[in-house]
Design brief:
Helix content is 50%, strand content 11%. The protein has helices spanning 7-11, 14-26, 36-40, 44-53, 60-73, 78-101, 107-113, 123-154, 156-164, 169-179, 210-213, 248-265, and strands spanning 33-35, 115-116, 119-120, 186-188, 193-195, 198-200, 205-207, 268-271, 278-279, 287-289, 291-295. It has a 3-stranded antiparallel beta sheet. Strands 2-3 form a two-stranded antiparallel ribbon. It has a two-stranded antiparallel sheet with strand order 4-7. It is globular, with a radius of gyration of 20 Å.
């Protein structure tokens, strides 16, 4: 699957992402206020993932609901989590059957024609991986975009600097990923060990927070300070090693475009009511309601 998410491969979705962001901004720019989480950040990843998977982008609200059900609502409720997981599984069973009859240039069609050690990719592996693309590609990037916009709405100097120096946005994106890491992955211990001063038994589920690692004072200078031109930034927001996030290049591109398009059209914005901002908790963290007021440069081209 790596070729689908290489830096050059994801670039073919940049223009589509730019137009999507402009369309979303057109929808609220005349109002002078918007929920930047729900009306903007939330809307971008599901439509881009849909394009990669060759599925209907108009189902984006349903996709988001399914993912929230699996990751947030089902966090402490097995029945809710399994309910939404089953919806996702059944949906992709239907999509896979459709590609068998009507192959295209999407990821599902690619996997149906791919081989591992000379053998076709097992059907349950295809289903599991495309389902994971939906789950992993929506909530995490939505949260990253939302957190970056929250920062820019509450740090005017940083926002105005990026307006004046848009070439700095890719570097700023890396700092937003470090400072507001959207996800933490769990692991199961393969054997008994000691972690710090804690005993870990084989089979224990361990949650080591990426956000904590990204604020380690032994690795980062002034780790609690958000420095949008930070040059040395070996963060682990996407994990590390063999389990590193396969969609990291796609997420970076979406964040860069979302921030660039927003600052071009709405360079001045601020939080309307700080007490009203809500954040998701659990393994994925990001703003879910982000009421913002703003002035714009005019209509979106």
């Amino acid at each position: 699957m790596l070729p689908f998410f290489a830096p050059k491969a994801v670039e073919k979705y940049r223009e589509h992402t730019e137009e999507l962001c402009r369309t979303l901004i057109r929808g609220f720019i005349e109002d002078g206020r918007a929920d930047f989480a729900g009306e903007y950040a939330r809307q971008i990843p599901p439509r881009i993932i849909a394009a990669i998977l060759g599925i209907d982008p108009d189902m984006s609200d349903e996709f988001t609901t399914w993912v929230q059900g699996a990751l947030e609502l089902g966090l402490q409720d097995d029945e809710i989590r399994e309910h939404y997981a089953e919806i996702i599984r059944n949906f992709f069973v239907g999509e896979i059957k459709d590609r068998m009859e009507n192959p295209g240039d999407d990821l599902i069609s690619f996997l149906l024609g791919a081989e591992i050690d000379g053998q076709p990719v097992p059907m349950h592996v295809i289903r599991g991986n495309v389902g994971l693309m939906l789950i992993a590609g929506i909530d995490t990037t939505w949260s990253s975009i939302g957190s970056a916009l929250w920062h820019l709405a509450t740090h005017a100097d940083d926002r105005r600097r990026l307006v004046d120096e848009p070439e700095l946005i890719p570097t700023a994106v890396e700092e937003f990923l470090r400072a507001y890491s959207p996800v933490t992955m769990a692991r199961v211990a393969k054997h008994d060990t000691t972690l710090g001063n804690r005993e870990v038994n084989q089979g224990d589920r361990i949650l080591l927070t990426f956000p904590a690692a990204n604020r380690d004072p032994e690795v980062f200078e002034n780790p609690e300070e958000i420095i949008i031109d930070r040059q040395r930034n070996r963060h682990v927001a996407f994990g590390s090693g063999i389990h590193r996030c396969i969609g990291s290049n796609l997420a970076r591109m979406e964040m860069q475009v979302a921030i660039t398009e927003m600052l071009q059209q709405i360079p001045e914005f601020e939080i309307e009511d700080a007490a009203a901002v809500t954040w998701a908790g659990g393994q994925v963290r990001g703003p879910r309601y982000l009421p913002v007021t703003f002035s714009s440069r005019g209509s979106v081209s």
